[in-house]
Amino acid sequence: MGSSEIFVVVLITAIVMVSAAMLIAWWAAPSSKNAQKGETYECGIPTRGTSWMQFNVGYYLFAILFLMFDVETVLLFPWAVIMKSLGVDGLIAVGFFLVVLVLGLAYAWRKGALEWK
Known about the structure:
This protein has 117 residues and is mainly alpha-helical. Helix content is 68%, strand content 0%. It has helices at residues 3-28, 57-81, 83-110. Helix 2 packs antiparallel against helix 3 (83-110).
């Protein structure tokens, strides 16, 4: 069996398994048809006013920056584990990676993305 046949078998198996799981979940899930189901729920306390309010885009920007730099930090861990086997080329590559990371942080800082307004 070649690699393309294995790929097709794995793809079909994945589609069947996901479809079966979704069908079983839809069939077994309890359902309730009442007006309260469509209301906004906030920790058991009835909401006052509208629940559609705008948030400052700074919160989202700060969260995205946090996730971005968090993922970049996680990517540095495997490099640190195998650093000796990479040699000078690996050191140069990660140095370039860190330079780009620091430039991104400097850009975000200069644009004021890290300040709460």
